[in-house]
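Review box. Two proteins, two foldings.
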Amino acid sequence: MPRPVPRPAPPGRAPRPTPPGRAGDAPPDEDLLRRAGLRLAAGRARATELMPYLADALYAVKAVPSTRVPTLAIDTRWRMTYHPGFIATLTVEQVAGAWLHEVGHPLRRHAERFRDLAEPAARAGLWNRAADCAVNADLRAAGVQPPPVGAWFPEQVPGAEEGSTAEQLYRLLLQGPAGQRPAGPGPGLLLLPDTLRHDDALPADVLCFTREPLLDASTTVTLHHHPRPARDSGRDGDGGDHGDDGEPVTGEDGTPALGALRVRGPRQGSFTLGTRLPPGRYDVVVARGEERARTGFTITTPTLRLRPDHLVRGHGSPARVVLVGDGTRFDATSRVEVLDAAGRPLDVVAGVEHVSATHLAVDLAEVPEGTHRVRATTGPEVVQAVLPVGRPFLTLHPATLPAGHRTPLTLAVTTDDLVVDATSTLAVLDPAREPAEVVAATGPLEVRSPSVAHVPLLRPLDVGRYAVVLTTGDEQALATLTVGGRGAPAPASPGLGADAAGEDTDPADVPPAAAGEDAPGPGDGDKDHGDDGDDGDDCGSGAGGPRRAWEQDESGTDAEGRDDGSVDAGRAELIRQQTARAVLEHARSCGSVPAGWQRWATLVLEPEVDWRRELDSVTRRVSANVAGVRDYSYARPSRRAASFPGVVMPAMRQPRPPRVAAVVDTSGSISDAMLSRVHAETAVVVRRCRGEGVTVIACDAAASAPRTVRSMSEVRMVGGGGTDMREGLRAAARARPRFDLVITMTDGDTPWPAAPPPENPDARYVVLLLDGEREGVPAWMHTIVVPAGAGRDPRRG
C-alpha cells in the first residue's frame, strides 16, 4: 500500500510535521542534532571507560540520525540509527549503556544466529527479546546503567536459568503465549490500514481483503460504532457477528462516512473514508445479502508516555522524567503540570526542557507518594499520563494473552519497592464480576529474586482486562492483564513468514502485496508494541530479522556510490578477533570482565568443534561417498545391447541415498534429558538422509525390531532395562539391505564389541556419547562426545 502523503492540517489547527515513525518525517533541527551528537560522543567515551575491552567494536559503529526509529537500533553493517530526541533526553551514563547494549548484538552474531535457526521473519521480535536478555545480563554484571526503557533480563523469561543462551531463551519464549497458534480462524475481513491518526488527511483510501469470495457489485460497506464486547465473545474485531449493527456512522451533513466499495476481485476491494471522525473504535461491515464480514477500525487520539513510567520511594531530587508524545507536538510554549488524585496542581515542576517536537524533559522536585497525573498542554491540545510515585509497581510478562490461550502457562512478575519472598501471594481479579477474585487461577509463587517471581496460570481466562495483585505483608503491587481484545498480540503460527501461512491458515488470510510494495517487516509503519511492547523491543536487523523500514540497504555505499564507512562481514570478523583478545587480556590483568564476555572471547579465539557439526560432517561424508559410487549392474540391460546380439551388456547404476541406522540406548541409565537429545539428533539424521529414511533400533539389554522412519512422529522408543549395545549393533549389521552408516546413541555405560560386526564390516560406525567422555569405546568406531549437561551451545551468549 502506498505511504501516506503529507497531510493538510484539520480545520482550526496550524500545519505540523508528521511525527516520528511515519513516512514524510521532517528532519530534526540542527540544534537538536548537535546536542544529540555531543551526548552520543560523550556516551561512547564513557562506554570505553566502563568496558575498555570493547573499545575497538564501539568505535567501529557508525551513528546515523533518523526520526523514523523510536529510540535506537543497529543494522547488520554496524550502523546504529538513533532518534536525536531520544538521545538528547538521556544522561551520559544511560547513553553509554545504550552503546554497549547495541554493539553486543553484532559482536555476538545475533543476526547470523537467527538466520541459522531458519525461523520465520515474523518471530524476529521474540528472538530480539531473547538476545536482549543475554546482552543485558552481562551489562548488569558490569554495573552498566541502561536507558529508562523496558530492559529484558533472563529471570523475566519463565524457565530460564543463569547463563541461558539466546537460543534457549528464544525457545522458552516460543513455549509461551507468543508461540501459540490462533485459537480459531483468522479474521474474515482485513483492512490496510486499520488505524488512522485523528488528524490524517481526508479522504483516505483503505484496502480490504475478505476470507470468503464476498465482493461483487451488490456488496456494501458501512461504518458503525463499535459495541463493547461481551465477556464470552471471541477476540475484539475477529469478524464474528455482534448482532444488530445499528445505524451507520454519518458525517455532519448526513452522508455516509465511507464511500462506495470499489471491487477489485471477489476477495479484494477498497473504499474511501471522507468524514472526519472523533477518536475511538469503530466497526467496518462488508455485507452481501445475508453474508457479511466485520472487523475493527480505529481513529487514534493523541497520547503521552513517560520515561520512567513511575518513581520509586526516595527518588532523587530533582527527578528527571521524559514526556514522549504520540500524535501531539510540543513546542517552547508547552506547559507541564503534575496533578494529585483530586486534580489539584502540585508545586513540584522545577524545570521543563523542550528537547524536540515529540520529547519534553521535566525536572521534578520531591513528589509526595501517591498516584498522580502528568498533564502537558500545547495550545488547545491537552495530553495526560498517570505517574505512580512511591507505589509498589508491578510489571507482568506477558501482559497480554490471546483469546483461547493454553494453560498452564507461566507469568513472570517484576516489582519495585516491594520485596518478593515466601510469604508473598498473587491473585487475579476480575472487576466485572462478584466475587472479584478468579478462583484457582494461579499456582504457588516461585521466587527467583527479591524483585522477580514466576507463577503458573492454571485456568484459561475469558476475554477482558484483569487486575493482577501481588501482596507481601500489608503492601500490594498491581498490574493489568489483558486477554484478547485489540491489545492482545497476534500469535505466531509455525511457518508464518516462511510459507506465507501456517498449516491451519487459509491462504485468503494473507493478502497479496500491492505492486512494487515491500512485504511488511518489523519496524514498518507505526510500531505496534503488542505483547509487553516498549520502545526498546526492536534493536534492528543487527539483532536479527529482515531490514527495518528506517535502515539503509546493505551495499555499504552512500547516495553517490562512495563507501559509507560501515562494517562488512570480513572487517566484522577482524573486530571480533581483536575484541576477544582485549577481553581476555583485561580479564588476566584486571579480572573485572563479566563471565559471559569471557566465555564468548575464549570460544572466539579457541573455537571448539561443536558435536552437532561433527555429527553433521560425518553424515555428509557418508552421503557423498554413497552418492558418488557409480558402477555397472546387470539388474537392467544396457541400451547398447542391440549392438551386440547374444551378449548381455550391463547398465551404469545411478547413485542412491545412504542407508542409515540409529541404534538408540533406551536403558534405565538414560535420563529424560538425554532421551530428548536423542530425539533431537535423530531428527537431524532423518532430515539429512531423506530418500529411504532412517532405521531406528531401540536397545537396552536386547534390541527391538528395526523400524524405518521418515519423520520423528514415527519414532517409538521402548526399553528401560540393562544396557548391551552389542545387541543393537548386531541387529543393525544383520539387516538387509546393508546400512552405510550406523549411529549409536548412548551414555557409554555398556560393553562394546572388539571388532566391527562381521555381517557388515564396511559400514561407517559412529557412537554419540550423550553424557560426556567414556572409556572403552573401540578405536574402529568414530566417537563424538556430547559434553555432560549439554543442550546449550557454549559459544552462544
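Next protein.
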Amino acid sequence: MKTTTTFILLWLSFFGVNAMQSKTEPADIETQEVYLSGTGKDDMVDWDFFCSDGMNSGKWSTIGVPSCWELQSFGNYNYGKDDFKIRKNEYGLYKHQFNVPENWDEKEVKIVFEGVMTDAEVKINGKLAGEIHQGAFYEFKYEISKLLKYGEKNLLEVKVNKASSNTSINHAEREADFWIFGGIFRPVYLQASPKENIERVAINAKADGSLEADIYTASTKAKSLRLSLSDINHKKIEDLAATDISKENGKWHVTSKANDIKSWNPESPQLYFLNIELLDKKDEVLHTTTQRIGFRTVEVLEGDGIYVNGQRIKFKGVNRHSFYPSSGRTTSKELSIEHIKMMKDMNMNAVRMSHYPPDKHFLNVADSLGLFVIDEVCTWHSPYLDTKVGRKIVEETVVRDVNHPSILLWANGNETGWNTELDGDYAKWDIQKREVIHPWNIFNKTNTMHYPSYHVFAYDTYAKDKIYFPTEFLHGLYDGGHGAGLDDYWKQMWNMPLAAGGFLWDFADEAVVRTDKKGVLDTDGNHAADGIVGPYGEKEASYFSIKEIWSPVYIEDRYIKSDFNGVFRVENRYHFSNLNEIKMVAKWVQFDGPKGTDKVKVLSESTVPLPDLKPETKGAFNVDLPKNWQSADALFLTATDHNGLEIFTWSYPIKVPKDTNKSNIISAGQGAVTTHVDGGLIKVEANGIQYTFSEETSLLQEVKKGNNSIPFTNGPVIFDHKDKIESTNVNKLKNKVEIITVFEKTDKSPGWASHKEYSSDVIKWTIHSNGLLDLHVEIKGKKIVKGFKGITFSFPESEVSGMKWLGDGPYRVWRNRMKGTKFQVWENDYNNTVTGESGFEYPEFKGFFSSLYWARIKGKNNNGFTVYCNSENTFLRMLTPQQPKEDPNHRVSVDFPEGDISFVKNIPAIGTKFQTGDKMGPQGNSENYFGNDDEPISIDLTFEF
C-alpha cells in the first residue's frame, strides 16, 4: 500500500492509520492520488451516463460511480450461464469532468481503474488513453500526462461493453455460474508521481527477517536506494542496509535483513511498512514510496504439506464472492472488514477468492486481521482464457497483489477452466514464486478435487502422495452442507497427514436486489443460494456449527454425571499459538422455568488455567467444582483469544430433564377429577380444563380451558406403528384418572436369532386434579431403526406464534449438524423462512431441536401450552419446514414425519446439492441404533394448559 498525500478524504486507512499520509516527506517526492469516483458502494460520485438497452436506456442521465449499472436501474439483469448470450450488445457510456492542478504539469500522471465490466475504451479530452482493456476484475491504468489540460477542466469519457469482444473472456467470466453485471464497478482515481519515480515494487519478506525487493523504475537520474522499516504506526524501527543491489532493464534488485521482527501469521498478523527512497547522485530523494508488508515464509513440500513459517498448516477456509445485494460486485472497505470478521468469528483461517481477484481493500483487511488467501483469475469450466489476453490478466493480477502476506497460493482459473500455458507466467511477476494450483484438479504437488463424498475423501488412493485439500466442499445450497457433515469431514482432514484442510462453498447467498422487479431478492433459483450467511450477512445455523467444529481449542465431548471430576481433555489446534495464551472462564448457572424472566443465574464463576500446550499437542485442564455445583442446571465454558474475541462457549447440562423439571411442575394436591364416557369419547375434567380422548385409540381429541379451545389434538400417534390395540382401560383413582392403552404383542420377524416376544407398546395418560396431564409412552425395542422413533400430535401452524424452551438452541439441528448450539432457555418467534431462498429470518422457527427439557408453545388465538419432557435425549419437532422450490434431486429437502409437534428419539440428516446425507460421513447414516431389543423406548411428558 503506497504512502501518498491526497486532496480528498482517502479510504486506504486501516484501523486508525491513514497510510496515504506522510508527515516526514514533502508532497513533491511522493505519489498523490485524487479520486474521480467514490471509493465504494456507500460514497458514489455521479457521472453522466447513457445505457444502450434495457431499463432507462436510450437517454442520457446520471449514475453513481463506482457501481453495477443494473443496481442503479439501468440495462438488463443476467445470470451468466443461462441467458447472457442474448445481451451481448449492451453497453454504457460515461462522461465526467475533472480538474487537474496546474503544478501537476511537472509530474507523471496516470488514471487508474480498479475494475470495469468488461471491455473499457477510455478517452481523455477526446483522445484515446490507450488500448481497450479487456477483463472485468483486473486493475489497469494509463499514463495520460500529455492528454491533460493543467489548471483547467478535463473530460473523461469511457465506453463500457458488458460483453467482451474477446470470446475467451466471455466464456471465462461472462457465461459463468454467477451474476453478470456491467459498469465501472470499482474506484477510479488519478495518480501523480514525480517524473523520476518508482513505478512499482515487488517484495519477498521472509519469516527470518531476510528481505528482497524488485524495484521497477525508468529513472535515468536514480543512482542509489535507501530503505528503512517502520511499525504499523509509521514509527521508524531501523534503517536497512542493502547487502546486494543489482540493476537490469528498468528493475533494481535489492536484498537486506531486518532485525528483531515478528513474523506474520493469521493468529498474529504482524505488519510493517517498508520505506523505499530513490536517490540521485547527490543522495537527494527523487521519489519515496511505502509498502505494507508481513514477514512470512511459504513452502509447499511435495508429499508432505503446506508450511507457513516452518509450521504445517491446514486450511479452515471458505469461498467468497465480492458481492452485496443492493450494489452487486461493488463493495466497500467496511464490507470487507465485516465479512472477514465473520470468517474469523467462525474460527476460519483461510479464504479462496472465487472466482476472480477481490477488491484491494479485501486483501488489505486479510493482511490486517489475518487470513490465508488463495488468489484466483477468472475462468469457469471448460472454456479458458486465450494465451494472449490470459498473460495480460495474470500479469495484472500478480503485479497488483504480489506484496500481500495473506496470499499463499495462486489459482489459475476454476474447474478445468485453466490455460496451462499460463502456469509459468505467475513466477515472472511473483518475486516470492508462490505455487500455482488448478482448483478441482490433481496438479503438480496438490489434489484439490471438488465435492468429494466422505468415503472418497477418506479412502481414495489414486493420488495418495498429493497434498489434498478440496478448494470446494460441502456445497451449502439452502440449509444443506457447510456445518452439516463438517464434523465428520474435519476429523478426517485433521488426522490425515497429507490433508491440508479445505474450503466450504460458499460464504454468502448471492441474492441480488432486482430493481426491475420491485426490489425483490433474487438468487436465480438454486444457483446462488449457497451461503453460510444470508445476502445481508444473516447468520444461518451452520455459522455456529462451523464455529464449534473449527475451534482451535478442541475439547473432547464430555458429559457431566454425578461422579464428574472436573477434568476436560483438550487439544491445541492452533498452528502458531500456545494454548496458555487463551483465557477460559467457567460459569455454573441456573435457569428460570417457563414462567420466569429468562435471566441466567450464575452460581459460581472462575478462570480456568489452560495448560502449556504447543500447537497440535494434547493435554487436559481442570474446572474447579464449587460446593453447590450439583444444584446448577448447566456449566458454561467460554474461551476467548488474545484479542478478547470469543472462540466458543461450550455448554454442559448438569441434571437430567426429570430432575430439572421437578422444580417447575406443580404438585397436584387434593381436588376433584370427573370422568364421563359416552359416544366413543372419554371426557375428563379437572381444575377447569376439559380433556377429550378417543375411547377406541386413547388419542387426545380436544383440550378446552374454560371457553378457550387449545388446538392440540390427535396424539400421541406412534410413528411407523401397525400393532393393534389389545385393551383400553379408564382407572378412576384418588385425585387423578388414568387412561391406559396396551397394544398386542408382536413376535420378531424371521431371521432373528431369538424369537423372544417384544414387550407390548403402551400409552398411558394421567389427568391430575390440578389439571396437569402426564403422558407415558412405551415403544417396543428394536436395535436398528431407519424410520422415526417417537410420537406426534397435531397443532395447526396458523395457530402458532412462537415458542420458549429449555434445550439446545436457538437453531434447529440435523443428525449430521448437531454442533454449534448452546443449552439454555431460548425464545423464538414464528417465521416461515426457507433457508437461503426466502425470508432470511434466522433462526428458522420450524424443524428439530435437540435436548428438550421443556417448551412453552405460544398460540395466536389460544393460550397455547407448556410441555415438560422428562425423558433424556429427546428432540422436539416443531412444525414442518416449507421445502425449497428448486431441489430437483431431493438432497437438501428433508422428509418430515406426520403431524405438527412431535417428540422423537432420532432425526434425519441433510445432504448437499451434490450428495445425500448418507454420503457425507457416519453422522449422515440413515440407520439408528437403539440398544437392547428387550427394553422399550420410553417417552414421559407433562402438559400444562
